[in-house]
Fold this protein.
Amino acid sequence: MHPVEEIRGEYSNKLKGKRILLCITGSAATVESFYICRDLVRHGADVIPVMSEASTRILHPDIMEFASGNKPVLSLTGKVEHVDLCGERGVDLVLVAPCTANTISKMALGIADNAVTACVMTAKGSGIPIIIAPAMHLALFRDPSVENNINVLKKQGFIILGPRMEGNKAKLIAREEIVENVIRTLGRNDLNGKRILVIGGASAEGIDDIRVLTNRSSGRMGLELARAAFERGGDVEYWHGWIKVSIPSYIRSRSFESVDDLLKMVESENIDKFDVVIVCAALSNYVPRRFRGKISSMIKGLTIDLDIAPSVLERVRKICKNARIVAFKAEEDAEKIADLARDFLVKNDVHMVVANTLSSFGKDRSEFWIVTRKRILHKRGSKEEVANAIFDLL
């Protein structure tokens, strides 16, 4: 058994059974190809490296064989590797990462003078999806001919990721974004064309100019919902309050602090454009009557007056008349939670209510009740599993 089998599927099985051709060209970012390959394998993929001659001067073919478990294709032989790998019964996807200006221009002009470009041209003719991740000096990227060639590839159906601008360099985008776009391209795509808004995290209400009233929500559930929507082809945005997780670059996001801040966003951002709105944020039910400045730390027995916070869910429902609205509800009593969720669903006239116990806050694995008008799904699992179960029912 090749050592690569020790890590296959370590992260997930989202790419299990998928064969991916990883084409590598000669860039300073070529060293990242090893890690991209390993991440694809950790999601279950079978990766076949194809290397240009320039790339082998930066990254030895032996290390890519170790990374993938497959011997890299370095040149075309009598085995007609480009036809075998990229013909009609070939790989599921071609990923060129990194992709130099030279290779971009050759692909745009239909030049197939090495193993990489021949495989790409054959894949294009076979209808295999092709993802390109450019990396080069900024001056090269800004050259009008390179810009034109990138636009030519876009028109031909190539998926272009990045680059990431930093100083005078057009750098390879984060490998997490590359891998997630591979998962998205090869995924179910059942949310393709759907616009999805996820509102997550914890609101924070000012007590004075320094202190806030908030809660223990981590924002992880919202992030997993946004990630699941992205991987299934959705056009997703994540609006979040205070969170304890990092938002990846491939998910568009905006932040808010208080319930009032969020309400202003709801009112001003034309959210009626969304097909699905998921409100999983832990929003304050009460808003403190704010003190000016900083409350003295010398006061004993301080009393804070609270007013009932306005309902974000009610406002979302009134604006988004045609959207499917999903609300979350936290309860303490597990025996009554499904009935309470159904009552909440009817009262607020939403499409779905996802109920969880208080013990779910901040935990990786949780217990959920997903309630619609027709059924109740009781599920235990990771927040990623719960997120996909929600979209399955939607």
Q: What stands out?
A: The chain is about 35% helix and 25% strand. The chain has two domains: 3-186, 195-393. The first strand starts at residue 19 and ends at 24.
